[in-house]
Design a protein that fits this description.
Two copies of one chain form a homodimer. The first copy, chain A, has seven helices and 22 strands. Helices cover 10% and strands 31% of the residues of chain A. In chain A, strands 5-4-13-8-9 form a five-stranded mixed sheet. In chain A, strands 6, 7, 10, 11 and 12 form a five-stranded antiparallel sheet that branches. In chain A, strands 18-19-15-14-22 form a five-stranded mixed sheet.
Chain lengths: 396, 396
Amino acid sequence: GKAPAGLVDDPFKSDPERDSSLMVRSSRPCNAETPASELGTFITPAEKFYVRNHLWVPDVGDAEDHRLTIELIDGEEVTYSVADLRKNFREYNITATLQCSGNRRAHMTAGSRPTNGLQWQIGAISTATWTGVRLRDVLAHAGVDLNEPDEDIKHAQFVGAEAYGASISFDKAIDRHGDVMLVYAMNGQALPRDHGYPLRVLVPGHVAARSVKWLNKVILSGDESTSQWQKRDYKCFGPNVASHNVNWDDAPAIQETPVQSAITGVRQVKGDRLRDSDLARVYGLEEESVVLEGYAFAGGGREIIRVDVSPDNGKTWWQAQLLPHDKDVHDDNQKAWAWKQWRLALPTHALHEHFCVKAVDESYNSQPEQFDAFYNFRGNLANGWHRVPVSSRSKD
Amino acid sequence: GKAPAGLVDDPFKSDPERDSSLMVRSSRPCNAETPASELGTFITPAEKFYVRNHLWVPDVGDAEDHRLTIELIDGEEVTYSVADLRKNFREYNITATLQCSGNRRAHMTAGSRPTNGLQWQIGAISTATWTGVRLRDVLAHAGVDLNEPDEDIKHAQFVGAEAYGASISFDKAIDRHGDVMLVYAMNGQALPRDHGYPLRVLVPGHVAARSVKWLNKVILSGDESTSQWQKRDYKCFGPNVASHNVNWDDAPAIQETPVQSAITGVRQVKGDRLRDSDLARVYGLEEESVVLEGYAFAGGGREIIRVDVSPDNGKTWWQAQLLPHDKDVHDDNQKAWAWKQWRLALPTHALHEHFCVKAVDESYNSQPEQFDAFYNFRGNLANGWHRVPVSSRSKD
Ligand SMILES: [Mo]
Ligand SMILES: [Mo]
């Protein structure tokens, strides 16, 4: 529970140690992004996975003592230990990208105007294989009729041990193809404390703020969570709306996220080195070239179908190669819950001022060119084209 | 079936008469858009609904003689008359917008470069209440196990009586919340011949090209339809791709469509007339004003959550009022399959050069500012901001 500062011991004192390569945006609570050098692999190592904490990391003690309570619509409660979940339900592995609603907020600030919130660059996004059980299976066991559910149930609220709360639609919670999970392992190891040990929700395709960590309670309800993270912080308003004139109820809580992409690396490559590589086979480039790498991701399980890269600030465009998943990733995914890595080799003569990237998803939605017309004062869902100066390339 | 010209009678000779207000883009086959004056109502009258025919209108004779054949994955066939469908299955009413993939293609041409295809303005989109039975119910009756379907079934192909064909994913075809229908009535009347009499498919949230008219056959298959309308015409490629260098397999067939919006009317209104109106209550405008009206729509059942209008070519933005549905529309919709009508009153002093509109859907996707970077040589899914000269306003 929440404890007023000064009345008790420092609630952050039992926060875990973090990997020193993470780029810390705030330390209490800990918010730290994955460095660009770690964004080029399909699976992010757990210790390099970005950390987004709203409060302290609760010390939940032993996983054996942790309990999850499901509160049904009639108020009845059913309680499970993590061992109960492991023992009684089929286990699934879902490989999913989580992205903070504030990813690339710093780009919106730089491209338009100041925004409220942590100034994340491109690293408030990571991907892992999550192991656990399906929420729908547990709800069915707890007494919910999945075929003819009570029509009063509209939302599934989640409450974490540190007092964070959020909700998703009940439809998503029980969607046969929604892959909403109660997760106890990450990349084949026990969930780290920063990522929700011993139990978290995974809501693939939705903004990460709904994948509540240190999960204590699931409440089936006619109402959304009343937390500030549901009712206020994670919403977008028009570019003309500011904190002094906002009506928070005018916008819905962010759930599925729009198309996003970023350039994570730019390397100068000599023609003779390129000739032996995959990229030369794809693009047939022989002259001195630049290799760009990055990620692209869309919410809602919508697959990325194309990544367009410009070497000249948007005048001409090339299609990047979308890389296949790691061969050793085995998952039960029903939709495209994970990002696509991409790369592209461009001849040096084509470069002019800025590289840009924009991705397209299977519904043919894409990203805005600039930030001004999509500015929102909270700086959420900053998905304008990612621009990187041509001069930033490192020599190979 | 298809008949070579010259060998038989003119196949277009039995095409129906059309309403004279439709704006004809081609006459053989008939392609005609809804005039802007008819785009301002939530339900489009059937005779004003845009017509998009790829070939002639087949003369299927009496509805009583028409048959629908379901071809199962093992090749077995089950046949239904329209009367069978009406008698044996629960009837649903779904209010859905259909939009041609070429809607607003003329704007892409004008905003960027020439495109192949009919040069539609803003009227290749309309909305109706469709009455029929659920495809999933009929498939279950024909022998498909909806809970554990044969894993070889990946697509549902549709074949029309005039030889048109297209397909959708089998997942969409049987999605409990997908509302895919076999339709025999439109706005409470028998389906007009131009819209598929006596039976068509309705695939809400997908590009209209999948809602096959004059439906003869549904084929469950491991493969997509092999028609040109599935494999070629209805795809988008990068702005650098042209007809001479396209690899048609590089892009997936368009199914769900991106966010779209348009301005359908601009009226100058005197302050004293505005004072008595709804708009004055919402916006409190007293001076001479301009009232803008339009539509906004997103595929995939994603609700339009905001419409931003600029009176000065994108420099400043105002939020339009999203109008409630007509009170007399009763439907069984499970998602936001229909467009939203919107309107906004703006003070005359704010106007400068161009009005612009862009909409935002519940996944917070929006529309591109310009056409150049999203140009595709087929001119599909032209959803750049709709710009209208301020000088175009009509006096009230
Ligand atoms: Mo977040
Ligand atoms: Mo179309």
